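Changelog excerpt

This revision adds worked examples to the README so contributors can see how folded entries look when concatenated. The first example is reproduced verbatim below.
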Amino acid sequence: MDDKVIKCFQMLGLPYDASINDVETAYQRLRKDIQNGSLPWEKSKEILWAYDYVLNFLKNNSHEEAPQQTANETMIGHSSGAVNPGVSGNRPNPSVTPNITKEPSRGTRAPLFVSAILIILFLCIALFYFGRPLFRINSVTQNDLDTASIVRKIKPSIVILRVGNLGTGSGFVVDKEGYIVTNAHVMKEKTATATFSDGFETEVNLVMLDEERDFALVKAATNREYAFLTLGDSTKCSEGDTVIAAGAPLSLEFSFTKGIIRSTKRSLPFLQAHLIQTDAAINPGNSGGPLVNTQGEVVGVNFFKVLKFEKLAVEGIGFAIAINDVKAHIEKKQQMSDVELTQAMAREMKIIEEVSQAPLTEEIKKMKEQAIEEQWERERRRRELNEKVEVVNKDLQEQKQRIEKRLQEEADQHRRRSQETAEARNKALNECLQRATNQYQGSWNEYCKKYNQQDNCSLPYNAASLLQQRLGQWRDECIRLYPQ
């Protein structure tokens, strides 16, 4: 047993005297680990190679013992009978030699092994090129919450803001100290009253206001530990993502609506911030409330919705300010002076007047045209991707066919060479055995002449035994020269 065989037995976890059935059982056990991907690719290749090598070794060894046993049985049978070689039943018969035209198992197994490796490589390539979007989707959604869980998670951090007698808006807490985010157009005064979902009320004071992003930061006057929301990453939002809008639309406190993101690339000329378009219902009173994703993270601040377009009623076109555009304000929590707040509020009122007096028809038209252009661009990219996929699939199919054809040709050549080699050895062995038989017969007749008898005479036991021993040696030499 050479070192390779010993190493293969160790790789399969088998003793050195294991049978073919033991090898098959061990391979089936390891094959499950290979199929479920718990073993590295290199380890899987080594196990497949070890299984093939050990199986071929055991089969070849059991095959080599048969000719020796057959030859011995033939010699014993001849010596135990009558010493007269003239009887046909006692002559050595070359036909008892084993037929070696059977193909080695290695020849038939090798192409299958190589084909299995190629199929695995083909599947890996396909997964690499076409499976990455699927893996990305799974990784993004594996921590998603159901709608009821999201509402329960964010509701304690939602507030309803009442600014004197000027109206109602929404907001959300962003840290445990009671800092609250809302829209600038909600804070028409420097103070307001915040109501929480558990009924708790407190006065809030304006900390800072950014009219260019319609952003306002206020702080609760009451010291307590507040439940707050986690800020998400609006740059990771994609068209089709599920979102929930929270607030107090039409004074209906703590209302929640659900929809999807329609676009992440909207903008308006009077606003220095990116807008997220959604079909989650946003109505007056929702302004300043959070737009959250399926992990309960804030990705936008509810801003406004389109009610009419060219005298037509519009539904499902709402906008939120991307949270990344105001994160810096939230993190700094910079307190503006009273004068700065007054000036910022005046600029905000001016913007509101200008926007309310100028129709947004042209801006809505631009948004519509932009949406159409984006749709055409997505369709163009989809067609390009499909064409690339078809080209890759065609190339892979052609490459696979070429490889399979080449492997089949190599397998056929190997099979023919193995068959020719086996036939040549079988022929040489038969000829050698026949020569041994003829030499034995000639020696027998020479002994007959010494005893002045005719050919094929009956010899004394000692002489006959000696010739039988020589015949066995000659036959053993033939088997040694031409092993099967």
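The second example, added in the same revision:
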Amino acid sequence: MKGNKNPFWAAVNKTLAVIAATLIMALILAPAAWAADTYKILHEFTGGADGSDPTAGLIFDAAGNLYGTAKYGGSWGQGTVFELTPNSDGSWTETVLYNFSGGDDGGQPFAGVTFDRAGNLYGTTYTGGAGDGTVFELTRDPDGSWTETVLHSFTGSDGRAPVAGVIFGRAGSLYGTTTWGGTAGLGTVFELTPNSDGTWTEKVLHSFTGGKGGSYPDRGSLVFDAAGNLYGAAADGGQAGCNAFEPGCGVIYELTPNSKGTWREKVLYLFSGEKDGYVPEATLVFDKAGNLYGSTWLGGSHGAGNVFELVLNADGSWKHRVLHQFNGGSQGPMRGVILRAGKIYGTKGDGGSHGFGYVFELVPNADGSWTQKVLHQFTGEAAAYPWAVPIFDAAGNLYGTASEGGPNGAGAVFEITP
């Protein structure tokens, strides 16, 4: 009633006004508490001409286009290299740059691609070539098409079945690993050196022999330190007794060049298969202080892998520390993590609320512990099983691949905007 001076209703109205004002101020002062990350699918693979099963990560070019590989699909079902170009309306257009046939040109690109300074793309195929996989180059032609050149075909004795990608060294040589092959058949680290006539010469820098030295360097690419030493992870070997599938627990190793042109392996850490986990097959990453970060695919406190740090001590030794133990699902990050602004980001290929994996952020606490924040849970409808490490653009948006899901079950490329 107009002019009502009832003290009860006056008190109620005053209380409601205070609550409303408090909520408004909370939203203004603390947007991070209520703002949600925005998830968007950029491309859903059909499993046909555009490819299927993108298990590797992406890279950007200077113009903001994304590049990656699909392990299967394409014209011959042996995989593709693709480009995603952003449009003015916010959509993205996929272009297949190359279709692998599975023959001399290679097949099944498990790893992603990398650029040289001229804008050419380089990568590996699991099969094809001489029979045991290839290292290839894609060169852009004047008409916008791309031409593939096989730089090296593996024959088994020099390596077999490369699953990881390649990286460039200071002198323009390419470095990578093969899962099998070599002297003992347990994998290799190789170098490809360009010649003046356009050919490339392969040299095996290290053949894994098992035991304490490790074996089967699988999905993780190599990484250089500032001094030119190589670092990587071997999924097997080291300490024995993890399980029947992986009889060894895996190692982190360093390869150091000497004056004779050979390389010496040093094992930095041997996994025990207990709380430290096992199968460390992911790519390692350095922070500014020279410490290494990586992940295990299996094991740990809950059996679902973990994220770890190797801290370089003053005497040259390394101290291992588990930063986060995953709980739920059966597998940890397969290909590693990425660092940004003091935080750690990655994907877990399974588990989460729906069992199809998720994208996570690890935030450091004052006491040295780390807290996990889930940025996106995959439902299996639009995408599922994100195995690859995501990447950031300059604006802080995350981009990655999911190997399955979507209406065709063939995987997708996604973006997460904070």
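Reviewer comment on example two: The chain has one helix and 28 strands. The CA atoms of residues 244 and 418 lie 42 Å apart.
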